[in-house]
Amino acid sequence: MTLLLSIIAFNIIIIVHELGHFIVAKLCKIQVLEFSLFFGPKIFSIKIGETMYSLRLIPALAYVKLEGEEEESDSERSFGNKSVFTRMAVIAAGPIANILLATVLLMVIISTSGYETTKVGKVLEGSPAYEAGLREGDIIKSYDGKKVYAPAEEMLFLMASKGKEANVTIERNGNEEELSVKPLVIPANRLLLGFRAKESYGKESNVVSSVISKQADENNNLKPGDKILKIDNQEIKSMPDILNYLKNVYDQKLKDEQADRNKDDKSKESNIVLNVNVLRDGNIVPLQIKPFFEQGRSDSYDIGMAFAPSVKGGAGDIVREAFISTYSYTRVSIYSIIYLFQGKFSFAEVTGPVGMVATMNEVVQMVPSMMDKILSILNLMVFISIALGIANLLPIPPADGSRLILLALEAVRRKPLPVEKERMIMAAGFVFMMILFVVVLFSDIFKIFNGIGV
């Protein structure tokens, strides 16, 4: 059921995109030859007026076919014979429809569960945020020199900072203040002792709450209540101390060993033995612990704070916050693309249609009630719809953005690009996009079958 809902949700985003092209083409008196749901062999079709409405076999995607869009036509109502600005409007209508869909969905979400703010709800004592001076009730205005309108932006800028110290502008009691925070770096590939601490930061963050790995039980004899005092004579006062020490051990002793391992070797064990002193029942107990290796996809970063719960408001608040959130998520999509090409994010993290549906399905399965499932799908639809709209504006053939560039060039030159050249550009772009699609598709499938989050 959840998988079906995820597939339907993804297809709604694509259909709305094509409806944008379709509606504006109709309004501009361009002849629409076909509007098709899905692709593949035709199952059913009906002609209403001049337009054929089709349903095809493979339940994914949609498309609109316009007179004179891909071939020359003498018809006054052909796409190619309309003005440059009319054609630009038709092309831009798809991405704009995706962004408008996101705004409508945000109104539904906000009317049901409220809207997010950048007000700080909790700061963990001993965390980087706490040490920097951030406190509950502060309003985050910017992170690393970039304005923040929603929590998603702060999290994006935190990830893009790659753990470097960043300036954070806050509002406190009506006054703006500048703080400097140094995030905790959690490496993708790291050593673990296999326990859960009582706290993430602070005085009890080096106290064992529970042993979380069966493998850890076999490799050490940590017990709930143990307070870790030293590792190899290195004094330990908090969880960050443990993480930093294990990172140093990994960098010095295990990194090369893991790099040299056979790719088929899925062993998590290391040959390292750590001398650990713990405080247990008032006595210092020496232990020898064999840590285990965990391999992730990318480093993560944390400053030890959480935003305040969502706020409910009236009709005016709902509309205003829906537009603010749309703007915020649009910025997130644009910055994500920029960071991707800057190398701050990995292309291995790019997700295609299969991965998007899998992510939707995974998230939906995690929530208990049907209402929560629906809200989770709607939230993901907002992100994906805006991301699709922005990605389609990239100047990469055959995306809508590349066609807008060609039309802008035509407006400047006051004559269209020769049809042969335009077809060559689009064909080259299509080959590139198909190669990229296949690579991303296999990447998505690999992640799913190997249990890696997409």
UniProtKB/TrEMBL annotation:
Protein's membrane topology: Multi-pass membrane protein
Domain of life the protein comes from: Bacteria
InterPro entries: PDZ, PDZ_6, PDZ_sf, Pept_M50_Zn, Peptidase_M50
Keywords attached to this entry: Hydrolase, Membrane, Metal-binding, Metalloprotease, Protease, Transmembrane, Transmembrane helix, Zinc
Family per similarity comment: Belongs to the peptidase M50B family.
Entries under PANTHER family matching the protein: MEMBRANE METALLOPROTEASE ARASP2, CHLOROPLASTIC-RELATED, REGULATOR OF SIGMA-E PROTEASE RSEP
Protein name: Zinc metalloprotease
Classification of source organism: Bacteria, Bacillati, Bacillota, Clostridia, Eubacteriales
